Amino acid sequence: MKTMADLIVGQKAKIIGFSEINSDILRLMSMGLVEHIEIYCENVSFGGDPKQFSFYGSHLTARNDTLKKIRVEPIDEH
Question: Is it the case that residue 78 has pLDDT exceeding 70?
């Protein structure tokens, strides 16, 4: 199963669930990062961590250890 940590710049995905709910995930959920929304990987730092995503006109930057808890389904744009 892919997670947000697996996404590369330019890739879109749909959030399908969470493998663990902790304070970091609850904070992201309160910001609107919930199941069934589409996200877009905007940018990745030189070392690959953190990553920046956009959804509903908002931008979010998070570390891979948190992103690994968010399961996604990549969206094929072809």
Answer: no
